[in-house]
Amino acid sequence: MSKKVQGNVSSFFDLKAELLKKKDILKGQSAQAGVSSAAVYVKGKPVLAEKRRAIREAKEAQKNAKSIAVVSDAEQQELQRQLAKSKQTLEAKAALYDRLRSGRAKELDEENQPIYLVNFSKNAHDEIDEISSEDEAENGFGKKASGALSTSASPSRDDDIVEYTDCLGRTRTCHKSELQNVLSADKGLSMRSAADSWSKDTELMSEDMRRELRRQEWEKEAEEAAEMGPIHFQHVMSNEPRTLGTAYYHFSLDEATRQEQLKQLKEASEQTKLQRERNARLKERRKKLMNERLRKVMERKNISAPTLAEGESEADLTSIPLPLDNSEGQTEEKKEVEVLKKKRFVSPHPGDGESMKEATYRYMEKQRSDRNPEFAPPTFYYNN
């Protein structure tokens, strides 16, 4: 008859301690002998749960592989059709965008212009201007570079070094081809420096010199007025401050320039008129769209539309009379009521020839007369 083992808590702890002790001894022996700890242990059988998990994972992997491998021809054709459709749509959008940016599209008319949120016409003009400016810059840079290379490599006989004297009396040198530009710039510098040095605002001038400058200006203006003929109101003299109005347009005295200015002014007026007509058409179009949306909403909510008379397209809200037609009479009555309701202010301080006691009684009587009878004390208070 086998003896049944009786276990308690202390015996379990002793068994655990003995097991850990044996493991440490085995680890030390394997380290001294140079044998790995994995080779010492005997490989046991896998647990039942691990077996089932491995079988389940293998079945799922096999099922996924079959579902990926087996794809019907109909699904492949559908995928190819959707891919081709999306590609065709993107190509059409790209072509439309390029056509709108180039400015050659017919869709950019007055009616369809508000549909697009991008001003393609302005972008096209800006792009064309940018490209042309880049081309001009490249051409100019190429010409300059080629000219610099040619002059540095083989200087021509005509482009010799010459000497000239500037406005300050200095002797300078430059190329013969650049002499005219340098002389014109030097002349402008000399005129500007002379004007700056003899400015009428300088503090180094005496009163006689300022008077002489003013006399010269008057003589110059008189000569110009004599050559010009009758003085026009736009030709002010002696720096006279004059406001000509916001609608004033200063036309040139030259006939050709004046005709060009008139042409530009008429073109601007025509553009303004066309813009107003376009805005009116857009407003009418928006109004029609809003009425259509309102009609659909009323139909959806089963609301009957207001009946209109024959020959009347829309309800004229401006013809409805306002309730304040007799505004003058009402304002007069209101003023009379305000005058009646207005109370005269009575000061509690004594006036001329009046004592403080009399002023107090007068103020009390005034307040009692203005008091609401509902808030007055009972009448028997005043019987005595």
From TrEMBL:
UniProt domain CCDC174 alpha/beta GRSR: residue ranges: 162-189
Annotated stretches, region: Disordered: 133-159, 303-384
Entry-linked InterPro entries: CCDC174-like, CCDC174_GRSR
Keyword Coiled coil found: yes
Signal peptide limits: none
Coiled coil spans: 48-96, 258-292
Descriptive protein name: DUF4078 domain containing protein
Source species taxonomy: Eukaryota, Metazoa, Ecdysozoa, Nematoda, Enoplea
